[in-house]
Amino acid sequence: MADNQTLRWLLHKQESDKFPFRLYLEEKPDDFLVLSVQERWPGPGKKIYCLLEERCNKFELPKEKPIEDIPIVKTVKYGKRLNIILNRKTKKRCWFIFLKKEYKTKPGKFYDQIFWITQSSAKVRRPGAYIPKVKEGSWCEIIIDKRERYPYKFGYAQTKRENLPVGDYALIKQGKIIAIAERKTLDNMLHEIGTYDVLKATLQELSTYPFKAVVFESPYSDFMNPKKVKHYKTSYVADILSDLAVSFPEIQFIFCGNRKFAREWIYRWFLRINSTNNKNQHI
Question: How many Cβ atoms are within 10 Å of 110's Cβ, its own excluded?
Fold first, then answer.
């Protein structure tokens, strides 16, 4: 991921009937992805096929003034997809899909297919959600804290019991913890309100890991039910939950309907993190 407004989006005209524009997209400082494109910006309902050219640096850019020179607010690489946000009021969100296709007449040899899609074109086409696929049987190593009396089961994942420094379940990659989940029941959370400073200290340690979540085995509505929160006013409990969300914006607080859904959320979360980490090789 890049988050740097000095990155640039440069569009030049070129002598070609089929691909009249060349786009220079700065993915990271002084490293430009170069694409020949059919239009300045895909219109509603369109996805534009692009030709991949050689990458270049700033010294290899055309000398002519570009027809567009726009700062890039953010680039996000997500599987086969590269998301771009430009610093302008309109026509600012788009993404590129990078595919590898095998030649029909040349088995074992592949070519690039790149498609440029914009927010407006996606709304018209309604293509559905794009997420990189995760196989159910993907290799995944999970540590379950020894203090968990009735631990979750995680399908095909390899699990082992150890004393975790914090949290109840941890995803391991190359011997390091990259994701931690803290499980909370309704009664457990209400009990910890009585030692709120201790809870916040625990969450401060939880927040030191790359991915972190607190997963409740109850829906939010249970915390607003006077019969279930017992000794506390529901408004007070609501203030506690909102204070946690504001104090720890880097932690995901997830309210599930029951134990089964909480386990399923943590398992899918771990699988997605594990798959993304395999592709990127870093967090």
Answer: 11
Q: Measured at the alpha carbon of residue 170, what is the angle toward residues 270 and 249, in degrees to the nearest 5?
A: 75
Between the two ends of the chain, the Cα-to-Cα distance in Å is: 10
Query: What does the domain layout of the chain look like in residue ranges?
Result: 8-125, 141-280
Q: Which two tokens stand for residue 32?
A: 């430009």
User: In the chain, how many H helices and how many E strands?
Assistant: 7, 14
Greatest Cα pair distance in the chain: 75
36 contacts 53 by C-beta, under 8 angstroms:
yes
What pLDDT, in 10s, does the model give residues 30-76?
999 999 999 999 877 788 899 999 899 999 999 999 999 999 998 88
The Cα 280–Cα 229 span in angstroms is 43
Place of tokens 């771009």: 84
Q: Rounded to 5 degrees, what are φ and ψ at 37?
A: -130, 160
Q: Does domain 141-280 have CATH number 3.40.50.10130?
A: yes
pLDDT in tens, 175-232: 899 999 999 999 999 999 999 999 999 999 999 999 999 999 999 999 999 999 988 9
Closest CA to 158 of 179, 143, 180: 143
pTM flag (> 0.85): no
At 224, which amino acid appears?
M
